Amino acid sequence: MGAEDHVGIYVINVIGATVRKLRDDALGAAVSADGSRIAFHSHHKLMVMNQDGEQAHEIYSYAPEDSLFDLEWSPDGQRIAYARVHQTEADPEVTLENRDANGGTLVTVLKRSDVRGVVWLAGNRLIFVAYEPAPRQDDMNLWEARVDARTGALRGEPRKLTDWSGFNFSWPSATSDGKHLAFVNEHDQGDIYVGELGKNGTELKSRARLTLSEKNDWIGGWMPDGKSLLFYSARNGNFELYRQKITDLSAETLNSSSEEKRSPQISPDGNWIVYLSWPRLPNGAQPASGRLMRLPVTGGPAELIFDVPGYATWGVPGDVARNLGDVPGFRCNSSKSGACVLVEGQQLNKKLTFTPFDPVTGKKGKSIAAEVPDEPSWALSPDGSQIAITWFDSHAATIRIVPVAGGASHDISVRNVIQLVNLAWAADGKSLFAIRGSARGSRLLHVDMNGNSQEIGKAVWDIFQVSASPDGKSLAYGAVNSNSNVWMIPNLP
Fold it and tell me: Looking at the structure, do residues 132 and 219 belong to the same domain, yes or no?
């Protein structure tokens, strides 16, 4: 990342720590063994340039729904390996590929949805990282695939090198002789923080961590009095629903079942907790559909509102944000006379449909359509009349305001900001809170309806969620905490 948070490739001189930019709008830089060339990807193209940033040229272009990670040169500098992720409406498909560095033949080494990283060692050994199947789905291990020195084709079946528990092999790299491998043993988890709002939402004070489990905790919604928060957590192995006062250290379990439950929110009349539920499939497979449910606030069995096609997710299985995602999803407003709104659609095609519904009767209202240029985050205004939508953009920050009753939408261009990842309305519906991604961590912003923003908080880690209490006194946000250490395997088998 660049000094102003624009994505780019830079060279750092280890003597004197001087920084020199080679190229803007580039990701995943990988340097060839002899140091003469750099492979990278930019705007859905795999490219190669000289070590000084000159003579950049395309190797091949890939589809908008695909992404590349872990570019890796062969030891002789003739081929480039990488993992390609193909996004689908079901689970992403991961293919380990390599191709001629001069733009020639493509070789598919293997297709495995559990692959996460690759290192090309001397002796034509491709070492790749893969997740374990359930019930060890949080563990990673190393595998070896032998490839032909000239063609890059797979020779024989891959073999497993390690069978360890509790390890995450992130950012693997190896010495030039292939004998020693280093990696980051990284463990991420989502935690919820709450702070006190002041100065009409332009100040955030007394921030403290609310959830103290060692598993993922993510925000659902607030109780009407603004003193308790609804959330969902995997602290007992499955995502269940919880309620916790912001002054307490422990949470109350709302219900328990074998299904994955998410996004608990209070109904406008205050009598029901509405949530989404999906069946848990073997080996963490992605279900094709789920159910919108309601649970009495006073206790009792859950009831079906209606079925919902699709599965809301960010990233691939194993990612800390796997159980986030906004499509399909819903929001309920805090007005007692209001309704909830369901969003559906093909997220990959960026076409969304928003439909008001009554969480008591299940009756749906008139749908409205919206298109966004990238994967969206959205929020429903407190009175239920407007939807705010944003999306990640490396060059700008736009918030689209869409009337629920239909009519023309309009965009708010947030000044001097890029890379918004989430947003929420303020309690009075006259401004918004947003999260800005940054190379130096995440920023919490207060944004007025004219696009003026003010930073009210920051973190060295990623923040994925934000939610203001109905009384306007508190702000909750969901952030990732990471525990990472560098490990080395000497004498790699």
Answer: no
